[in-house]
Each structure stands twice: as structure tokens, then as C-alpha cells.
Amino acid sequence: MGCYNTKLQKTGLTSSAYKYGIDTYLDQNLNSQYSENQESDKSIQSLNGGTRASTAISLSTVDVKSKRSIFKLQKVRELITLPNGHQNQVKQILKMDQNRLLSIGNDCQIIIWDMITMTKLYALDTKQSVYLACVIPNRLLIGILGQNRDKLYAWNIQGQFKSNATELVDSLKLNRMVKSLINLEFTNNRFFCVGYQTGELSIFDNTNMEIAEEVQFFQHPLDILVESKENIKLKSCIIGASRKSQTIRLVSYRNNTETIVDVGQIKVRSNVCNLHELRDLNIAVALQNGDVEIWNILKSNAPQRTLKSFDNIITKVVSLELGQILMGVTKDARFMFWKIFNGQPILQSDYPVHTKKVTGVIVHGDKIFTSSHDSSIRATSLIYKY
């Protein structure tokens, strides 16, 4: 408890991706690695099997979607502000499982919510402000605390979140400020990933809270980390970006050998604000110049298309309807929607969903949950024409 990290490896990334090209690298490395782990499933060998539907959509929602035109989105309607919530800014919301979300407030509270009933289930008083968190399903909640964002805490969240089921099980004092934090599902939730102010990336083993591997990822703060989940050929890939840079970098973590291999990079046209992985080896990148670009990682010389945001800066991007619609949240907390395949705008909300900056977005069927610095978490419904 309270120990300092001593395992710091200043290793560089390999150049194999640049030597052979990203597409060759994916074919020879990532696809072969995934095939070794999934020999029984022959369909994943082909590119046609290279995408998978998001697990965020329930079967009942899919049944409803089959009866409507998904591109006839008519309006958004605010449903409810979740009651008995935070007393101060909400910094982050995370999806815990199919029906629960977790929120982190500036009031030293972590709250578990039911997304079906939209009610509060449990609150954890952390005694200190939590800046970032990630969830190791059914086992741990990892949080970054401290004024310098350099304390890593792990809580046991097994059971039904009763007072005796959530306990501090480990803590670690880091020697750098943390800027980003994600769990790595492709490692069977054994490892999680940390990005630092100094640009390094560390892979932690959550069984002993030790660093398994570390590399210098950027020379800028590593603000954004995304685990690839939508594309089989990107299995084991981590996508990273800095808000002070125009570069997006992809690396692969091989947990069997505990090594990080470079996959490639994309150079966008403005500094990155946010990014979201899409199907078919695409990513959506919200830029600080107000544009949203769709990039295919196999064709990293130019974007597939550019989505205009009508002079609004897009701060968050997520996909809806099994990856067919892209939703952006503007700087003034409005929603915008586009068709992903051609970039055509569908709808822009008439009013802001919050009075201050939106800090998190979770899609749950036809409901969208958003958190904000105005201390609220709100549920908004999407209204379609049938």
C-alpha cells in the first residue's frame, strides 16, 4: 500500500509498421494473433467478418430498430435529470455493464446508477477527489486521485455494491501526472492502460498493480486513450492522441509476451479534440477547428470524408444505431447527428442539454446519458419516425 513505482522502462516503439505499411502489418500480425486465440471461429478469418456489433445495444432495442427508418431521426427529448446525484461537477461517466453506469463527481463521490430505472443504486465516498476511473468488470474499480493526479487506488466492487462489498484493496503512488486511463478488455480484463502528462504509456497488471510494459508514446500529454473493440483486425490495439498534437498513434499490446508494437499513425488537419472508433477500420476524429473527420487506418494519407459542424466545436463523438449514425456534442452542449457512410447531417438539437461543458456520453439503446460540469447527469431520448 502506498508504494512508489520502480519498474520504468524507457523503451521505444518498433518501426515494423512503417517498414511494411499498416495494411501489411495488420494482415501479418494482428489477424494472425487473433486467429491463434479464436481457432474455433472460422468466420473471423475473412475481412467480411472483420467487424462486430456493439454490445451496448440490447436485443429488445434491435427488435424495435428493425421496424423503423434509422435515418429518420426527428428530434431529441429530455427525459430526466437523474435525482439525488452529485453536489459538484461531474467529471466522468462510465458504462459498467449492460444496465449500469458509474459517475465521478468533484464532491468525492462515485455513484452507481441503474440505466433502466434511472435511479441511484449506491454511492462510494472516496474522501478525495477522483479525476479519472476505469472499471475492471465484476472485480475492481481503478481510480486516479490526489492533487497532482498521481495516486492510483483500486476498490473491490464484487457483489451488489453494498457498504461491505466495496473496499480499498490496493494503492500506488506514481511519479507522474495521469491524463488518461482505460481498461483493456482484450486481455481478459487483466491489464489496464495509463497515459501520462509526460507522454508515456504504461500497461499495468491489475493482479499485482505492477507495470508490465512502458513506452514513450508522445512528446505531448497523452490525453486520449481508446481500446479497439469494433474491429477484429485491430484486436489488441490501443489508439492514443494528445490535444496538443495533430497525430493519432496506434499500438498493439501483446499480453502473452508483454510487449508493445507500433501499428502506425495518422496525421489529421488540426489538433485533436476527441476520437471514437467506428466499424470497418474507421475512426471519427473531432478536431479543434470544428470539423469531424472520418479516417480509414489503411488509407492514412487523407480522411474518407469531413463532417461539417456548422461553426460549432465538437467536443465528444459517439456512434449510434450499430455504427450507422455518428453523434457529436458541441462545445455549447448541443447534439448533432450525421450519416456515417456519406457524412450527410441528419439533425441538430434546438437547445443545449446542459448549462456547462459536457464531460461524458453513454449510449444505451434509444437513450443518451450525459454528464456535465453543471453537476447533473441527464437522460435524453431519441425520437424516430416509423
From TrEMBL:
Gene Ontology BP, a term: positive regulation of transcription by RNA polymerase I
Subcellular location: Nucleus, Nucleolus
Record bears the keyword RNA-binding: no
InterPro entries: WD40/YVTN_repeat-like_dom_sf (IPR015943), WD40_repeat_dom_sf (IPR036322), WD40_rpt (IPR001680)
GO CC, alphabetical: nucleolus
Keyword line: Nucleus, Repeat, WD repeat
Name of the featured protein: Wd-40 repeat-containing protein
Organism: Stylonychia lemnae (Ciliate)
Gene: Contig3078.g3289
